[in-house]
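hey all, quick one before standup. I had two proteins in the batch that finished overnight and I want to keep them in one place so we stop losing track of which output belongs to which input. First protein below, input sequence then structure tokens straight from the run.
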Amino acid sequence: MNPLLRVSLFRAHHSRALTAAAPQSSTALRTTSRIGRSAGKRHYSTSGSDSPKRQQTASGARDRAAVGVFTPKAAVIFVLTSVGLYFYFNYEKQKLQEQKKKELESRKWGKAAVGGPFTLTTHTGAPFTEKDLLGKWSLVYFGFTNCPDICPEELDKMTEVVIELDKSYGPIAQPVFISVDPARDPPPQVAIYLRDFHPRLVGLSGTYEQTRAVCKTYRVYFSTPKDATPDGDYLVDHSIYFYLMNPEGEFVEAFGKSSTVQDVVTRVQEEVAQWEKEKGKRT
């Protein structure tokens, strides 16, 4: 082959080789450049200059979460509220105690002056005074054995009341009948009269002076003449009540003819409950 032709062919081949290799080299160069820039960006974003700030922010968030809303202002409000509540409840407690004290005084001094010392004789002939009623609840009725209808009706009612109370408490109440007719109601007569009523009913009677004294003590109207005789012609008038007395001999309430058995039972139960609350016992 002609040498000149060989040189020309070599140069043409070499030129095509360079042309084919040039794009690859450029692509590699551009790729290398992007990688370098990317690495530079990553290096910049994770540089140590920003890390302390982020750590401080995270630490502050944790501190705020631990402290919550308990700021100095909140602490002052909490203390003032606590002190206010203490004084409020202490005031209410004292107020309640004063109210209870007044109620007790009212119960003690607000009652009528009913009841007191007396001396009479039972239907069995034994002496009987107000002290024999202490330590028990008592229902006291004033009447006379010749009473045609009112006295028997009231004593029947008293009997039913005692029966109902016995069901709830046992023998907690003592029924008492006091005659306002000393001339016609000696103990034997009273004993006969009581057979129709409650077996625990105690019948009491006495002389004219004793009867007048006990009626005055219980504020019962007494009209029997002083010179009355058993066969005399006279009328007896009296108050139509029976009285509830507590275990200390104090008057609680008077029940009139209009009071029903249930009225009396309910009232006695209320008094027994209150007594038990205050004294720790029923009698």
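OK second protein, same deal, sequence then tokens:
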Amino acid sequence: MHDLIPRALQWLRLLFAPGTGKRRRRPHRPPFPHLHLTLVRCPLTAEPPRLPSHRSPYGLATLLDGAESALARPYLTAHEREAALQQRRRLALVLAADFGIDLDRHVIGAPEVTA
């Protein structure tokens, strides 16, 4: 904290004194350029097409029936079908292994066996 007063004065001088001139202002220009406007009469054109009015999906006159729309994702239904098939295979395997009951009546490529 040496030379506290000169440091404070130098700081105030840098803060309030004019700049060094390295970043000079540009010459004064009017804030808005002078425009020379010429009035031109345009022929009357047809009105541009309007956008349709905004309709809220919550204010429809008829209610939506969920059973009518096919909003199910196809990969979910395929997964459910595959899970049901896997469950049937497991049941057939358990019944065949534990009780000797065969649920598959048609096996491709195997001759039919009569008991």
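Flagging for whoever picks this up: The mean pLDDT is 75. Residues 72-104 form one domain.
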